[in-house]
Amino acid sequence: MKIICIGRNYASHIAELQNERPEEPVIFMKPDSALVLKQHPFVIPEFSQDVHHEIELVVKINKVGKYIDKKFAHKYYDEITVGIDFTARDVQQKLKDKGLPWEKAKAFDGSAVVGDFINKIDLQSVDNIQFKLTNNGVTVQAGESKNMLWNIDEIIAYVSQFFTLKIGDLIFTGTPQGVASVKSEDLLEGFLEEKQLFRIQVK
Ligand code: ZN
Description:
By secondary structure, the chain is an alpha+beta fold. The protein has 4 helices and 14 strands. About 40% of the residues are buried.
């Protein structure tokens, strides 16, 4: 199982980090060891003083595909949730400055939180989902899938040109604005529409 992530998929988040708007989706990956096990806390790693939360919609691939046409991409996933792409922003900034890959900042153990999945047939449209992250009960990030630069079907089509998608692969689809540092004792909760799909303690 692999975890494929899309960066810079919301104009509002590109602006807050003063990044360039990409001409194509930005892709990076996390290994399966990045997943936080259910009921476990997120432990801030020693090598970072500035770990940010990034709430994102996450889709789970349900069949093998390569060179998937955009118009068939919807057949390659049934389930969707919210997750966190934890990012060691200080480490990432150093890597970006040197033009180096982001893995140490993005793919470390515990850097991927995935909520409980819901079936997309229970949603009106995957292109019109509202989701949010709360920290100690206060909303810190809120996003709408209609504001993605590339929607889910376009992401699946694009990614599958480079990587064969397999059953159980996860795609993180990018974060909206509002990324910020986490600290010990934070309680992060992810919601898709009004449904709470994860709850994780920071240590
Ligand atoms: Zn992200």
